[in-house]
Automatic annotation (TrEMBL):
<dbReference type="GO" id="GO:0004788">
    <property type="term" value="F:thiamine diphosphokinase activity"/>
</dbReference>
<keyword id="KW-0067">ATP-binding</keyword>
<dbReference type="InterPro" id="IPR036759">
    <property type="entry name" value="TPK_catalytic_sf"/>
</dbReference>
<dbReference type="InterPro" id="IPR006282">
    <property type="entry name" value="Thi_PPkinase"/>
</dbReference>
<feature type="domain" description="Thiamin pyrophosphokinase thiamin-binding">
    <location>
        <begin position="130"/>
        <end position="197"/>
    </location>
</feature>
<protein>
    <recommendedName>
        <fullName>Thiamine diphosphokinase</fullName>
        <ecNumber>2.7.6.2</ecNumber>
    </recommendedName>
</protein>
<keyword id="KW-0547">Nucleotide-binding</keyword>
<dbReference type="InterPro" id="IPR053149">
    <property type="entry name" value="TPK"/>
</dbReference>
<dbReference type="Pfam" id="PF04263">
    <property type="entry name" value="TPK_catalytic"/>
</dbReference>
<dbReference type="InterPro" id="IPR007373">
    <property type="entry name" value="Thiamin_PyroPKinase_B1-bd"/>
</dbReference>
<keyword id="KW-0418">Kinase</keyword>
<dbReference type="InterPro" id="IPR007371">
    <property type="entry name" value="TPK_catalytic"/>
</dbReference>
<dbReference type="Pfam" id="PF04265">
    <property type="entry name" value="TPK_B1_binding"/>
</dbReference>
<keyword id="KW-0808">Transferase</keyword>
<dbReference type="InterPro" id="IPR036371">
    <property type="entry name" value="TPK_B1-bd_sf"/>
</dbReference>
Length: 230
C-alpha cells in the first residue's frame, strides 16, 4: 500500500520532463488545478512560471540550482531506483483522475515504461496528453461521443478480451495480446462503447476527445479497476 503524498477530490495535473507543447500545461491546469511534477517536470513548470504544489521523484534530474526555488515541504524524494519518476508520482497521488503532460514523445523507452506503470497501477486513472492524441488505460467500461472517422486505437499489454459498439471493426470475439491480435487504427462510426473483461488495454483517441474522456472518468458510471495485489 502506497501512502498518498497528494490527496485530492478533484483531478490533478502531473507534468514530466518529456516533450510538451507550448499550451499543454495551461490546458491541463484549466481542467486539473493542482500541479504535481515528476522530478524534472518541475523544470518545465518553473520555466512556465508555475510553482508545483508537489515534486515527487528521486530528484536526480532536478539540479540544486532549481531545487532551492521550491519550498522544502513540497519536495518529496523517493530514492529507490526500481521504478520511474512517473511511476513514483502516480502511485503516490490519490485523486479521481491524473492528467499527465510531458510523458509522450521523445524517448521510446520512457514511453513504454510509462505505459507499463499505467497498467500496473490500473486503480489510478490517468490520461496522458500528446501532440495529437490522448492515451489512457481503458476502464472496465467506456462511453465516448466521437464522430465518424475518428481514429480509436487499442493496444493490449496483457491478453484481454473486450466488446464494442460504434467501432468499424468490432472487438467482440477477439483475444488481444501484445504478441498477437491488437486493435490499432480502428475507427469510430459514431458514439463508442467499449467493455473490457480485465485491465491491460490502452486506448488512444484524438486529442480533441480529451474533455469527453475526462467527463467519463469523473462520471459515477465509470468503473474502476481494483488495486493490483502484491
Amino acid at each position: 500500500m502506497n501512502t498518498a503524498i497528494v490527496e485530492k477530490s478533484e483531478p490533478v495535473t502531473l507534468v514530466g520532463g518529456g516533450d510538451i507543447g507550448p499550451e499543454d500545461l495551461e490546458l491541463a491546469l484549466e481542467r486539473a488545478r493542482t500541479l504535481v511534477a515528476a522530478d524534472s517536470g518541475a523544470l518545465v513548470a518553473l520555466a512556465q512560471g508555475r510553482m508545483p504544489d508537489a515534486v515527487i521523484g528521486d530528484m536526480d534530474s532536478l539540479p540544486a540550482l532549481h531545487r532551492v526555488r521550491i519550498p522544502d515541504e513540497r519536495l518529496h524524494s523517493i530514492s529507490e531506483q526500481d521504478s520511474t519518476d512517473f511511476d513514483k508520482a502516480l502511485r503516490h497521488i490519490s485523486a479521481p483522475l491524473v492528467l499527465g503532460v510531458g510523458f509522450l514523445g521523445a524517448r521510446v523507452d520512457h514511453q513504454l515504461a510509462t505505459f507499463n506503470a499505467m497498467v500496473r497501477h490500473a486503480d489510478r486513472p490517468c490520461v496522458l496528453l500528446g501532440a495529437s492524441e490522448a492515451v489512457f488505460h481503458l476502464p472496465p467500461r467506456l462511453e465516448l461521443d466521437l464522430v465518424p472517422g475518428d481514429v480509436v486505437s487499442l493496444f493490449p499489454l496483457v491478453p484481454v478480451t473486450a466488446r464494442s459498439e460504434g467501432l468499424f471493426w468490432p472487438l467482440d470475439g477477439f483475444v488481444m495480446a501484445p504478441d498477437g491480435q491488437i486493435g490499432t487504427s480502428n475507427r469510430a462510426t459514431g458514439p463508442v462503447q467499449i467493455e473490457s473483461d480485465g485491465p491491460g488495454l490502452l486506448a488512444i483517441v484524438p486529442r480533441g476527445a480529451l474533455d469527453g474522456v475526462i467527463r467519463w472518468f469523473l462520471s459515477p458510471r465509470c468503473g474502476r479497476w481494483p488495486a493490483r495485489g502484491g
